[in-house]
Structure prediction request, 278 residues.
Amino acid sequence: MSCTPRLTQLLRLRGFRMTPQRLAILQALHDGGHLSPGQVYKRVAQTGMMETTVYRTLDFLAENGILFVTNRAKGHLAYELARASHHHLVCRTCGAQVDLEREALQPLVDQLFQRTGYRLDVGHFTFSGLCPVCLPDSE
Amino acid sequence: MSCTPRLTQLLRLRGFRMTPQRLAILQALHDGGHLSPGQVYKRVAQTGMMETTVYRTLDFLAENGILFVTNRAKGHLAYELARASHHHLVCRTCGAQVDLEREALQPLVDQLFQRTGYRLDVGHFTFSGLCPVCLPDSE
DNA sequence: TTCCTTATTGCAATTATTATCAATAACAAT
DNA sequence: ATTGTTATTGATAATAATTGCAATAAGGAA
Ligand SMILES: [Mn+2]
Ligand SMILES: [Mn+2]
Ligand SMILES: [Zn+2]
Ligand SMILES: [Zn+2]
Prediction:
């Protein structure tokens, strides 16, 4: 990947280290898009890395802003390489998805700030809903 | 609880049954507010009920609209007795919370509908952010 | 290159969550 | 009250996720 030298530097500046395990996991996410810990493990199992390392590493990389995390259905997490801030809107019936640019949540951020003084963390949301196709069928 | 006859009827109309286990779990949530499955289990363990029953029952009651579920930190779920639709905004630094009435998300619902044609499911969100006290400290 | 420090991993043990299936008990009908 | 149907639970196994610690290795310094 083209970004590995940059990420290596980023970690070193913070006193952390780049490792073959972290590189393998980054590669898996580079190839796979949004993946659960189990899916990541399947893609790196060949290297002999432990599954516990996958969990730890995903959490670590997300903590350092190198990965995005999102809460998928029923409390399950999915990770992806951090890129332009965005969110997802997925149809609960047919699974169709659309992406939302970061700015789509700015009105909510502003409104919550006005109402409560809280500044919303705009991370990487996955919203559920009904797509235009399924919406009419629902009732 | 005062609502148990109504809930019993609700379940029967759908072909389900009220049981001592379900009543105990409802009581625990009545007393405890927002609880994780483990916290619910602690409160009903005295009855001898299995922990697996707690998980199943929480999922079942939420599926039937009797409980609200929400995604708390790192993919962990919390349940509460369904009441007036609302959401939560919690400070990621000090943990301070404010509640949001259902209408607080209506602008987002409308905006997403306009932009994408998707109708957002407005369930029971827990948003993270910085409270007015912690906000200035964050640089 | 070699040596040190210590961040990181492997490994094993816990804990959390889900799945299976036979035994139980709600509750509707008699 | 008794019976029959079957939703529900207990019990156990399987799977997912977390934790603790000793062994390993990244990478800065000599
Ligand atoms: Mn994404
Ligand atoms: Mn709530
Ligand atoms: Zn759809
Ligand atoms: Zn705060």
The first helix of chain A runs from residue 4 to 13. Residues 12, 17-19, 37-38, 51-52, 55-56 of chain A lie near DNA strand D (CB under 10 Å from a C1').
